[in-house]
Amino acid sequence: MKSESPLTPDSKPPEPINVSSFAGAGLQFAISLVLFLFLGRWIDSKLGTSPIFLIAGVFIGGGAAFYSMYRKLTAAQKADDERRKIERERQK
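Predicted structure:
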């Protein structure tokens, strides 16, 4: 069952999606990859395993970055759909 929006036709619709809300996504992605890369490298140096944790760190960092970006984009899409729905209802 789809839940109804808490917004009424008289309430203010969500702000439209703009580029500035996603400006840091690339930087966040890069920082996540580099952080997990160095974490994997550090674990490899402590345990004496060569590239195992470095490779795992890159994949975990990439996966975490993609998941974070996916959540941000789906939330923005949902807000934009809600805004458009309210605008269509007001035009009727």
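Summary: Residues 25-91 form one domain.
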